[in-house]
């Protein structure tokens, strides 16, 4: 077991299976020393645990937990092409999309769920640049979607 996966276990988490693509794309692609994930939905066992807009049917706290799930799914996608999460030199960027009710403006707090998970699991290697964007709708009516970019050690 890698050190990163051991840390996940300490947190009571484990890597899920990589979510099957919903269309014509790969969950993650490696180019040189970088891995780029596709947007990861908060799938658990192949299903969305909740759907709807944040600030409407979904609370900000629920969405923050869903963003954690997205980040965990993104780490699984990274492992699928990197082979070992201990090869992560650093998380370079996180982009979070939040399906938002018209008056919801707490997107950064929601995406903190993903950022905080990466920090808990990877320590200083999890510190990253980030965007948190409100959108009208996401695939399958998911409340949140997260993609990450990581740099690997040689």
Verbal overview:
The chain is of the alpha+beta class. It has helices spanning 3-10, 60-82, 107-122; strands at 28-31, 34-37, 88-99, 129-135, 144-152. A 5-stranded mixed sheet has the order 1-2-5-3-4, with helices on one face. Helix 2 crosses helix 3 (107-122). The longest helix has 23 residues, at 60-82. The model has no long low-confidence stretch (mean pLDDT 97).
Please supply descriptive tags for the structure shown above.
154 residues; 23% strand
N-to-C SSE series?
HEEHEHEE
Give the overall average pLDDT: 97
Strand order of the largest sheet: 1-2-5-3-4
Task: Give the tally of β-strands.
Answer: 5
- Percent of residues in beta strands? 15-25%
Q: Which shape, going by the Cα principal axes?
A: globular
Question: What is the distance, rounded to the nearest whole angstrom, between the alpha carbons of the first and last residues?
Answer: 20 Å
Secondary structural class: alpha+beta
What share of residues is helical? Answer: 25-40%
Poorly predicted parts: none
User: For the report, how would you describe the main beta sheet?
Assistant: 5 strands, mixed
- Determine the oligomeric state from the structure: single chain
Count of separate DSSP helical elements: 3
Radius of gyration: 14 Å
